[in-house]
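Take a specimen:
=====
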Amino acid sequence: MLSTSEPRAALCDRLPLHTRRLVLRRLEMSDLDAVAAMLADPLVMRHFPRTLTRRESEAWLLRNAERCRRDGTALFAVTLDDVWIGDCGLVLRRLDAVDVLELGYHFRRDAWGHGYATEAAAACVATAHADVPHVPVVALIRSANIASRRVAARLGFAVGGATLHAGVVHERWDAPAPAGASPTGRWHPKGTLQ
């Protein structure tokens, strides 16, 4: 149970998350083949600076595991009928002097157009709102990424401005705050807010 004096972001500890069709679990090194194939796909990565090599994908998985350990949150594997179809989760970022949880996801091409991104993202946002309601949830989306803009809109996010991320201007989409929350807290080690 969360304490109002010291809420914790134990999102990684809440896994697996189950939705109507999907299971979200920790990303593991055993996911490397699927992750590397997806992150090397130029169509999947067209809104990112570039595709990744297998070695870079392995490093990406290791960084994600470190985020889970350090921050209590990260990107999670998304599976459909026990088959890996992508990743979705929340990454701690500091934007405009405020700690936020950035919603992010990638899905294999054959998983596009089925509502999986919206379904997985909704589960992640709901979990964040339950565990750390005072930390704003945002999505950083390039304006040309129409599919991600649609996902954000379906989830009730609204454009709240623009920000420079990874050397590229992104729209900052803000999630509606949960009822009664005042998103002004600061993140501290181990996912505590003070």
User: Anything to note?
Assistant: Residues 12-193 form a domain with the Aminopeptidase fold (CATH 3.40.630.30). The mean pLDDT is 88.
